[in-house]
Amino acid sequence: MSLTVTHDTFQLAQAFTIARGTKTEAQVLTVTARDGEHRGWGECVPYARYGETLDSVTAEIEGLRGLLDRTALQDALPAGAARNAVDCALWDLEAKRAGKHVWELAGLPAPGPEVTAYTLSLDSPENMRVAAARNAHRPILKIKLGTPDDMARLEAVRAGALDPVIIVDANEGWTAEVYADLAPHLLRLGVAMVEQPLPADQDDMLAEIARPLPVCADESCHDRSSLAGLAGKYDMVNIKLDKTGGLTEALSLKTAARSAGFDIMVGCMVGSSLAMAPAVLLAQGATFTDLDGPLLLAEDRAEALRFDAEGVHPAGRGLWG
Questions:
Q1: Using CA atoms, how far apart are residues 190 and 312, in angstroms rounded to an integer?
Q2: DSSP states of 237-261 as a string?
Q3: Catalytic annotation present for 144
Q4: How far apart are CA 77 and CA 127, in angstroms?
């Protein structure tokens, strides 16, 4: 079996801003696993927040030696983007070899569409109101926040979109005091959940202050080893394949998190339909699904995921799995 890795760029439909910065394109790595007759592939998005770059993740993947299966991979690479792309490529290759779907190999029920959130980029209150109004037909809007003047943005989004469920992602941008001040207003505006309000290394305060609405761990939750440190601070965990290091660990994390009493959110980095395809399997039955990456792109893979009123649909065989 051979592994190859390529760097691909997908232009975004418009600039996408969070508290950490702005991007105009999605830069991803595509891993292809071949055994001669069959090909499987997967995608990852290296993330600077976790010390990853395109070059460092490429080096991790190219450093793999010898015959590899998914079990050996879990020890060969740490949780992160590199292992994710290889793990998903191996799942796809295994399915092609067996003439089955990945969900069958994993012992999962046949998947269906999942309603996904649509993310509004961080912007001025007026621009966010306009964006909310333009997307008011969507069932769930996710708002990127994390600045000292977020109250005006919250009010503007709700004014622009009266009906959708709203979830908020602060991207570690608040202090405990800011969150405590905002929480009553989040409830008043019908916000259903807040994601990672405090920095991951300062989130112990969540165990000491009131949590009047569900709080979801994102940067504080990577794989199963994270769970013990989340008890009493979070109500939900955001599982992303680029954090867990692939579908193999993500499925185990989902089971373990539910057993520990956490609700499940399945999220993504900004990537193509290839990155979302394995996550659609993971998202089955999740409390919140946030797999809107392809909706933010101006261009996508040749065979893209289908999004409609029912949500994001499972991938066709030509894409993955």
A1: 24
A2: EEE-HHHHTSHHHHHHHHHHHHHTT
A3: yes
A4: 42
What is the distance between the alpha carbons of residues 131 and 121, in angstroms, rounded to a whole number? Answer: 9
Give 192-195's long-range contacts (Cβ < 8 A, gap of 24+). Answer: 192/165, 192/166, 192/167, 193/167, 193/168, 193/236, 193/265, 193/288, 194/167, 194/168, 194/169, 194/170, 195/167, 195/168, 195/169, 195/170, 195/238, 195/265
Nearest of 195, 191, 118 to residue 155 by alpha carbon: 191
Quote the pLDDT of residue 66: 78
DSSP designation for 140: E
Q: Among the options 142, 240, 243, 254, which is catalytic?
A: 240
* 144, 233, 243, 254: the active-site residue: 144
What is the tens place of the pLDDT at every residue in 81-136?
Answer: 999 999 999 999 999 999 999 999 999 999 999 999 999 999 999 999 999 999 99
Q: What is the pLDDT of residues 196-233, one digit of tens each?
A: 999 999 999 999 998 899 999 999 999 999 999 999 99
| Residue 19 CB neighbour total at 10 angstroms | 16
Question: Is pLDDT at 305 greater than 90 in this prediction?
Answer: yes
For the CA atoms of 302, 267, 156, 311, the dihedral, rounded to the nearest 10 degrees, stands at 60
